[in-house]
Amino acid sequence: MARKEVTYKVDNQASRDYGKEFIITEMSAYDADEMSMDLFRIMGEEGFTGISDDVISMGCAGLATFGLPVLTSASREVSLRLRERLLQTVEICITHENNSTRRPVNGQLDFEEVDTIRKLLDKVFYVNFSFFLMVGGESTSHS
User: Fold this and answer.
1) CA angle (131 as vertex; 86, 29 as ends), nearest 5
2) How much is the mean pLDDT over the chain?
3) Which of 25, 45, 97, 109 has the smallest number of Cβ neighbours within 10 A?
4) What is the pLDDT of residue 11?
């Protein structure tokens, strides 16, 4: 079975990134598990409190409920390394005269707005860690 791909298009017309299209490809299960262990380790090292036992017992799926706050609580070096690992799952789709080209996203070149980066990272967390989240027996959706 192929890995899941989700497209995120910047639809805020006031954004300088308006119209940019990003394709997020799900990590391998091994990579997602490894990253979840890293993120839970950060939570322990940084003294993250108030995490309920049910969230912890959800493993990597529980991370979908914390996402960026965990990443930003880490040391600068760790945070940058993990952010780069997350962005490695993202490509930008450039369309010109009905021809589309996909290439790996370049954080230094492809973003004009901090908000775009934050929303994109939130989507990356969702793609990789939320498929376990269930509400009333049905998987949740993320807008």
Assistant:
1) 55
2) 80
3) 97
4) 95
Tokens 């934050």 belong to which residue? 118
Residue at token pair 């990134």: 17
The whole-number pLDDT of residue 66 equals: 66
**Spatial separation of the C-alpha atoms in residues 126 and 57, rounded to whole Å:** 18
Helix axes 114-129, 29-45, angle to 10 degrees: 110
**pLDDT, tens digit (0-9, with 9 covering 90-100), for 67-93:** 667 777 777 888 888 889 899 999 999
Contact 25, 89 (CB under 8 A): yes
**Contact assessment for residue 86 and residue 38, using Cβ atoms and an 8 Å cutoff:** no
Contacts of residue 100, defined as CB under 8 A and 6 or more positions apart, other chains included, come to: 93, 94
Closest CA to 118 of 76, 81, 87, 77: 87
How high is the pLDDT of residue 105? 97
Residue numbers in the chain where pLDDT is lower than 70: 1, 46, 48-68, 130-143
Pick from 5, 131, 3: nearest CA to 60? 131
Distances (CA, A) of 117 to 8, 30, 68, 88, 133: 11, 25, 11, 13, 24
